[in-house]
Prior knowledge:
By secondary structure, this protein is an alpha/beta fold. It has ten helices and eight strands. The chain has helices at 18-30, 47-54, 80-85, 96-101, 106-118, 131-135, 139-154, 179-194, 213-220, 237-246, and strands spanning 7-11, 37-41, 60-63, 90-93, 122-127, 162-165, 205-207, 227-230. The protein has an eight-stranded parallel sheet. Helix 5 packs parallel to helix 7 and helix 7 (139-154) runs parallel beside helix 8. The longest helix is centred in the middle third of the chain and has 16 residues, at 139-154. The mean pLDDT is 96.
Amino acid sequence: MTSRRKLVVGNWKMHGSHKANAELLEGVLAARPFGCDVAVCVPFPFLSETAVTLASSDIRWGAQDCSAHEQGAYTGEVSAPMLREFGCRYVIVGHSERRAYHAESDQLVADKARVALAHGVTPIVCVGETLAQREAGETASVVKRQLSAVIHTLGHCVAEMVVAYEPVWAIGTGKTATPEQAQEVHALLRAQLQAATPRAGEMRLLYGGSVKPDNAVQLFAQPDIDGGLIGGAALKAADFAAICRAGD
């Protein structure tokens, strides 16, 4: 069995308010200690208050996206150096919703990961296939293509990132890849990383896609699944805490 410490990251997506966030974080903090690393990736306007709330705890925080540029005339963008100033440990890049709704290419995702790493923020690089791609037998080629762009762009720094496999057909749908299906793709990604870096065995690969308290234990028990990137369940303190405990 692996000795990699599990990592559970909550992705709040476009949810939250001052009141709701305070209650959620209070609940998560009260549920500690956890036997895994825990983080929350919150909307940009809430980074400051999240940083203040979590500053004295062992829970880290991050953002859900960043620009591929460090600064400049890019209205509406947020740079990795800005995220670093807010104490962000992580930033999600390449989430399927960004790829689909904002037409983000594999190379753009890779460039965002590179800039994040350059400024001390760990990118959580998302890969995953649609239902049509899975049914066409294209899962392996799709996720390998997505990851390949990041590997080539990061070079020797590739081992510093976190990878999250999120089958698009299982995000917010209530459908979840079976532990065996998820492990199959995670093993494929691990093998691809092993061809790129001798540190692939140290890297944490997360699963995301309707992870709930009742399936987290089985998913996290797989040899190449090192935790989860959690969407809807991360908005309920009790559910998120239960998933974190599955990573003990």
